[in-house]
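F.,

This is the one I mentioned.
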C-alpha cells in the first residue's frame, strides 16, 4: 500500500501546503507544551501544569478540526482506490493451524529451534502480504463491451490489464466481480395522505401522514459473470483476455466495481483491490429459432404480400388476361404453353411497408413465460423483416419512438407488464392511421380488435 505521507504530499497544492505546514507547526507547539507540562508537574507547579496541558490539548484539537479533514478529503479518492482487502484462504488457514501447533509446542518445551521455526513461518505470512500488495499496486483494468447483445447468445467481451510499472511484473492476477455482502432490506417512508371523517360523507378532511413499507428496487445484474486470470503481465505492458459471455435474460446489466486480486506468492492470503469502473450492457430479447417460426412466417408473409399486391418489379403471380389489362404485361412464354393470354402481376416495392405493434398487457393477464415468448417473437419478427429490406415502423404501449430496429429492440429489452395510467388509452385505440400493414401482438380477447384494423392487420395472440 502507498505511504500515507507520500500520498498526501503528491496531492497537495499551495493552499494545502500552507495548511500542512501550519498543522506541523501546531503539533510541534502542542508537543512542546506537553513537555513543559510534564516538567511543571515534576516541579510541583500545579497551575503551570494545567495551563501547558490545556494548551497542548487545545492546539491538537484545532489541528484535528481544521487541517486533518481537509487533507483527508483531498486524498480520500486515491486512498479508497488503493485500499487492499485481505481474505484468508484454505491453504493459509491450514498453515496458521500448523504454526499454532508449533507455537504451543515451543512454549511448552522452551526449545529455541521451535521458536526459530515459528518466527520463520510468521515471517513468510508477512512477506506474502507485502509481496501481494506490491503486485496489485498501480494495476489498471478496462472492460470493453459490445454495443448490445441478445439473451441466450454468446457475446465477445475483452478484459484488459495494464501494468504501468517499470520494473515489477504482475503475477497471478485475477479479475472478478466482488461479493456484495450488503443485502437490500425493505424500509419505511412517510407518505402524505388525508384524514376523512366520517369515511363516507367526508365532512372533515385534514392533511395526514401514513407510514408505508418500501421495497428497494432490484439491483441490475453484473456484467462480468466469470473471473479472468492473468498469469503474467510484463512491466509497461498490457495483457488482454477474451471471454464469451452468455446472458440468460433480457434487460440492463450494469456494474461499477470490479476486483483485482492475487494469491501470489504463497497462496496464504487472497489480497484484492477494488477498481471503480462503470460499465453497462443492454441485452436484447432472445431470438426464436427458425423452426419455431416456420408455422407463423408463411402466414404473415402471405397476408402481407396480398395486402401489398400491385405492379412493381417482384413477380407476384401469373393469371388470365382481362380486357382491362395492358398488353405490355403479357407473359409470352406462359401464353405459348397454355394457348391463352397470360398476364404477369407484380408486388409494389414502393409500398412494402410493415408496422409491428406490441400491445403491452397488464400485470397478471398472461403468464410470465408467455409474456417473454411474445417479447422474443416481436424481436424476431422485427429482425427478420429488417433483413428482408422491408420498410419497417414500430409502435407499442408507451413506446418512446424511433423507427430504427435498435430503437424497437431497446424498448423490448426492458419492457414489463404495466397498467394504463390515468387518462391513458390502449395503443390499439390510438394507433395512427397509415397504409402500413400491421403485425399486432396482443393479449386481447379474439374479436375485440378495433374495426379500422380488421383488414389491414395480422394479429398474434400472446
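My design for it:
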Amino acid at each position: 500500500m502507498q505511504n500515507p505521507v507520500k500520498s498526501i504530499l503528491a496531492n497537495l497544492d499551495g493552499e494545502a501546503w500552507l495548511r500542512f505546514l501550519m498543522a506541523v507547526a501546531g503539533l510541534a507547539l502542542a508537543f512542546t507544551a506537553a513537555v513543559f507540562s510534564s516538567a511543571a508537574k515534576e516541579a510541583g507547579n500545579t497551575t503551570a501544569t494545567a495551563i501547558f496541558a490545556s494548551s497542548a490539548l487545545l492546539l491538537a484539537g484545532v489541528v484535528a478540526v481544521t487541517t486533518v479533514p481537509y487533507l483527508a478529503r483531498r486524498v480520500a479518492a486515491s486512498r479508497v482506490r488503493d485500499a487492499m482487502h485481505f481474505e484468508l484462504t484454505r491453504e493459509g488457514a491450514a498453515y496458521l493451524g500448523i504454526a499454532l501447533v508449533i507455537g504451543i509446542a515451543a512454549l511448552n518445551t522452551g526449545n529455541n529451534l521451535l521458536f526459530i521455526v515459528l518466527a520463520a513461518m510468521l515471517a513468510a505470512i508477512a512477506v506474502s502480504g507485502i509481496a501481494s500488495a506490491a503486485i496489485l499496486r498501480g494495476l489498471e483494468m478496462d472492460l470493453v463491451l459490445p454495443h448490445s447483445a441478445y439473451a441466450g447468445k454468446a457475446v465477445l467481451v475483452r478484459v484488459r490489464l495494464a501494468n504501468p510499472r517499470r520494473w515489477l511484473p504482475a503475477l497471478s492476477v485475477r479479475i472478478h466481480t466482488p461479493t456484495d455482502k450488503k443485502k437490500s432490506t425493505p424500509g419505511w417512508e412517510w407518505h402524505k395522505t388525508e384524514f376523512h371523517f366520517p369515511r363516507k360523507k367526508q365532512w372533515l378532511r385534514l392533511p395526514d401522514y401514513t407510514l408505508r413499507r418500501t421495497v428497494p428496487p432490484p439491483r441490475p445484474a453484473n456484467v462480468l459473470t466469470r473471473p479472468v486470470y492473468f498469469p503474467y503481465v510484463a512491466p509497461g505492458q498490457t495483457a488482454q483476455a477474451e471471454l464469451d459471455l452468455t446472458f440468460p435474460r433480457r434487460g440492463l446489466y450494469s456494474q461499477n466495481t470490479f476486483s483485482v486480486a492475487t494469491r501470489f506468492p504463497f497462496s496464504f492470503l487472497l489480497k484484492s483491490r477494488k477498481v471503480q469502473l462503470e460499465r453497462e450492457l443492454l441485452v436484447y430479447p432472445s431470438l426464436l429459432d427458425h423452426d419455431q417460426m416456420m408455422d407463423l412466417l408463411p402466414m404473415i408473409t402471405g397476408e402481407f404480400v396480398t395486402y401489398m399486391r400491385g405492379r412493381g418489379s417482384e413477380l407476384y403471380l401469373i393469371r388470365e388476361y382481362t380486357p382491362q389489362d395492358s398488353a405490355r404485361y403479357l407473359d409470352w412464354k406462359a401464353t405459348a404453353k397454355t394457348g391463352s393470354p397470360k398476364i404477369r402481376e407484380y408486388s409494389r416495392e414502393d409500398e412494402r411497408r410493415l408496422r409491428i405493434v406490441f400491445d403491452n398487457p397488464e400485470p397478471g393477464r398472461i403468464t410470465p413465460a408467455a409474456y417473454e415468448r411474445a417479447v422474443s417473437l416481436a424481436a424476431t419478427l422485427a429482425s427478420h423483416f429488417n433483413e428482408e429490406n422491408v420498410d419497417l415502423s414500430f409502435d407499442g404501449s408507451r413506446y418512446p419512438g424511433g423507427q430504427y430496429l435498435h430503437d424497437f429492440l431497446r424498448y423490448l429489452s426492458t419492457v414489463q407488464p404495466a397498467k394504463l395510467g390515468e387518462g391513458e388509452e390502449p395503443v390499439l385505440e390510438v394507433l395512427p392511421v397509415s397504409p402500413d400493414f400491421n403485425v399486432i401482438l396482443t393479449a386481447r380477447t379474439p374479436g375485440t380488435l378495433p374495426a379500422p384494423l380488421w383488414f389491414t392487420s395480422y394479429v398474434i395472440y400472446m
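Confidence is low (pLDDT under 50) at residues 4-12.

Talk soon.
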